[in-house]
Amino acid sequence: MQNLTHFVNGEHIEGVSGRFSDVFNPATGEVQAQCPLASTEEVNAIIAKAAAAQPAWAAVNPQRRARVMMKFVGLLNRDMDKLAEALSREHGKTLPDAAGDVQRGLEVVEYCIGAPQMLKGDFTDSAGPGIDMYSMRQALGVTAGITPFNFPAMIPMWMFAPAIACGNAFILKPSERDPSVPLMLAELLKEAGLPDGILQVVNGDKEAVDALLHSETVQSIGFVGSTPIAEYIYATGCANGKRVQCFGGAKNHMIIMPDADLDQAADALLGAGYGAAGERCMAISVAVPVGEETADLLIEKLTSRIETLKVGPYTAGNDVDYGPVITAAAKENILKLVQSGIDQGAKLVVDGRNFNLQGYEDGFFVGPHLFDNVTSDMDIYTKEIFGPVLSTIRAKTYEEAIGYAMDHEYGNGTAIYTRDGDTARDFANRINVGMVGINVPIPVPLAYHTFGGWKKSVFGDLNQHGPDAFKFYTRTKTVTARWPSGIKEGGEFSIPVMG
Ligand code: NAD
Fold first, then answer.
1. Cβ–Cβ contacts within 10 Å for residue 2, how many?
2. Ligand 1 centre distance from Cα of residue 63 (Å)
3. In the chain, pLDDT over 90 holds for what percent of residues?
4. Model pTM?
């Protein structure tokens, strides 16, 4: 049994709180490691160390900081297979999917190599007589992030890469379900030349999060996870005067128009609905076919494809489409929601409840489920299931279909499948969802755009990565400088107007 650590000032340190949580191998159900859960005192000590290290890092010129990111990219590529294996072992996702998790984080690190350009200020020459005005972006100080289990490489990198490139220290509180990859990332950053104390990894649960939320030293909190926790962290962090951005849960709809290529749409739904066992905030969990004929055909095409899905452990390599869910409790919750769907009158077209994998009976595997005739009042529609369960809600018209996505409380991602440019354009313009795919099922923006949902999928103002990250992790300071030549008029008592 492995005992995991915290990563503080460039070293692995053991937890001393005496509290631990189990880290499972979801494919076998075995406990493979113990994750230390930090106490408030431990977190406060780690924050103090970060605060001591940060000013020197902020004083390093931006291109030197960027070179650390450049070196880090090389190390991530060097260790890609190792990282993916560690990630799959704790999370359960397939190896190619785990490599994608690392890759999508790496791309944001690459973007952060451009930090010197992003941090350049604005300058107005001669804003008034003898007056120049300039704005600069300065690091916040000690920043922190709390991340979910489902992307243990990507989301930490989305936070700490821009935070660090801006000159901040960053304290990462990863998910206690799969903390090994975040610890490995911290080791790699040290190898890349990051000074000690600038990326600290503190493992823990609510106690550690609360210590970060109530610390006077921590200037900003980034959070990605479920909506109830996002709401709590946003409210508490804001009440404590911090800059906070929280990204929450999702229920992503895909509208399938009668003119869509239905084979293409069914293939897309298969990957977007069941990939990573549905444990993606950008998973499509609701299919909305428009018209009875479209719905009947879609269900038929989906059913035959779902029958070919290969569910198994990551050790099966490329020969598996998706793996187990994260814990036994997650599996139980998914199956409970499936039962509620049946009880509330939805038609279970593909039933994955009795899925069993020989040799892996104790693993947290959930077979694929497909529901038809779902209505908007059912729990399987209103709640995030976060499992391999696709619900079909039939719409008579495009207006009814777009209405479902608009009225849902979540607004992370959505997609439309159509051959009609007019419909696609109308959809993109009107939909109240943050990330929109047109004939693209999982529209995750690239690193140089920003990532974020709308409605209950987000709390805060700025998105993740892209230019928004550089705004979130810096404060603007604007200097008005006057170097008068022989101007000695005495005091001015009205507000200065330079026009
Ligand atoms: P979670 O909310 O259970 O946990 C997220 C983090 O919060 C973890 O680090 C956890 O330790 C911490 N936490 C848990 N309970 C807490 C509490 N009571 N107080 C303080 N901190 C607490 O989420 P999860 O199960 O790890 O991740 C899945 C969720 O994340 C889904 O809802 C998914 O949609 C969402 N998600 C959203 C995005 C996005 O960008 N919108 C991306 C990925 C995942």
1. 11
2. 34
3. 95
4. 0.96
Q: Which CATH class is domain 252-438?
A: alpha beta
* CA nearest to 426, candidates 257, 293, 266: 257
CA distance linking residue 78 with residue 83, whole number of Å = 10
Residues within 6 Å of ligand 1 by CB: 146-151, 173, 175-176, 205-206, 209, 224-226, 229, 247-250, 281, 384, 386, 412, 453, 457
Distance between CA 26 and CA 88 in Å, rounded?
A: 9
Is 290 within 8 Å of 396 (Cβ atoms)?
yes
**C-alpha of residue 230 to centroid of ligand 1, in Å:** 7
* Nearest atom, ligand 1, residue 176 CA: 11
Instruction: Kindly give, in sequence order, each residue whose CB lies less than 8 Å from that of residue 304, ignoring residues fewer than 6 positions away.
Output: none
Active-site residue, 281 included: yes
- Please list, residue by residue across 301-315, b when 16 or more beta carbons sit within 10 angstroms of its beta carbon and e when fewer do: bbeebbeebebbbbb
Q: What does the block give as tokens for 452?
A: 């974020």
Query: In the predicted model, what is the mean pLDDT of the chain?
Result: 97
Query: From the CA atom positions of the chain, what is the Rg in Å?
Result: 25
Mean pLDDT of 140-161: 98
**Helix, strand or coil for residue 125?**
strand
Residue 337's pLDDT band, with cuts at 50, 70 and 90, is very high
Domain limits of the chain? 2-248+457-479, 252-438
User: Alpha-carbon distance 250 to 433, whole Å?
Assistant: 10
Tell which CATH architecture fits domain 2-248+457-479.
3-Layer(aba) Sandwich (3.40)
Model confidence over 395-454: pLDDT tens digits? 999 999 999 999 999 999 999 999 999 999 999 999 999 999 999 999 999 999 999 999
CA of 84 to the centre of ligand 1 (A): 21
Out of 281, 384, 389, 435, mutate this one to test ligand 1's pocket (max ligand atoms within 8 Å of CB): namely: 281
